[in-house]
């Protein structure tokens, strides 16, 4: 099937099999939106005697996507899409929903929850890139400081870097609590929002205070000594 092109202002791909190809797809078990698009291609082809190059490429893409081999591959992937992959997708979606990247995929996961199955391509793009792998590690690794551990803030590597903030209150810089001792009262308390090493979220309580602070593992160090 070799298309040829006219010299019209909008190039049209003419192929004697286009209408037949479209009708074969329309007789298949395809999503409603895909069939609506194919019907629009069919109408255009009958009127203009062919498809634009962009339309033709879209048709070929649909044919490939719904080939028996790719249908089988999707069925296998959907069976492999277990609770572990759903949890990984959710963790990555919670990270990316706050960024300019993968926002539509993140919304799809968070709004669809258990009913959402990402395609293999989408899953690998959002959940297996280097940033996502760091977020996953911070989310699923064992906490370095267990509940009940006494900790202090380590000096920030960059002056003025925020190390903690009081839940529901304005941000507090690490300098305000540089020499205080804290008790870890919660680990993995919120979703990871940074790909930085040690981004697991903690709740810590300063000695002599009832103000719970939210911070990240990377800003803490174990207290060694007598309180």
Shape: elongated
Report the average pLDDT across residues: 87
Q: Which parts are unreliable, with pLDDT below 50 for 5 consecutive residues or more?
A: 1-9
Percent range of helical residues: 40-55%
Radius of gyration: 27 Å
Number of domains: 3
What does the largest sheet look like? 7 strands, antiparallel
What fraction strand?
15-25%
DSSP summary, beta strand count = 10
H/E element order: EEHHEHHHHHHEEEEEEE
Major β-sheet strand ordering: 6-5-9-8-7-4-10
Number of helices: 8
Structural class: alpha+beta
* Cα separation of the termini: 81 Å
Quickly list its features.
single chain, 227 residues, alpha+beta, seven-stranded antiparallel beta sheet, 8 helices, disordered N terminus
């Amino acid at each position: 099937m070799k298309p040829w092109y006219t010299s019209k202002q909008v190039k049209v791909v003419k192929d004697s099999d286009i209408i037949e190809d479209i009708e074969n797809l329309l007789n298949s078990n395809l999503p409603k939106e895909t069939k609506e698009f194919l019907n629009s291609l069919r109408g255009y082809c009958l009127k203009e005697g062919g498809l634009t190059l962009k339309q033709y490429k879209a048709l070929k893409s649909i044919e490939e996507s719904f080939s028996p081999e790719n249908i089988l591959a999707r069925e296998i992937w959907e069976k492999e899409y277990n609770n572990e992959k759903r949890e990984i997708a959710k963790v990555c979606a919670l990270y990316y929903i706050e960024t300019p990247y993968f926002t539509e995929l993140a919304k799809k996961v968070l709004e669809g929850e258990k009913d959402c199955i990402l395609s293999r391509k989408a899953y690998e793009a959002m959940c297996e890139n280097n940033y996502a792998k760091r977020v996953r590690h911070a989310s699923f690794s064992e906490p370095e400081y267990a509940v009940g551990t006494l900790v202090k803030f380590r000096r920030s590597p960059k002056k003025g870097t925020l190390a903690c903030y009081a839940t529901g209150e304005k941000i507090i810089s690490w300098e305000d609590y540089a020499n205080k001792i804290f008790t870890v009262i919660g680990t993995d308390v919120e979703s990871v929002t940074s790909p930085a090493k040690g981004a697991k979220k903690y709740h810590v309580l300063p000695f002599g205070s009832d103000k719970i602070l939210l911070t990240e593992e990377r800003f803490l160090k174990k207290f060694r000594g007598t309180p």
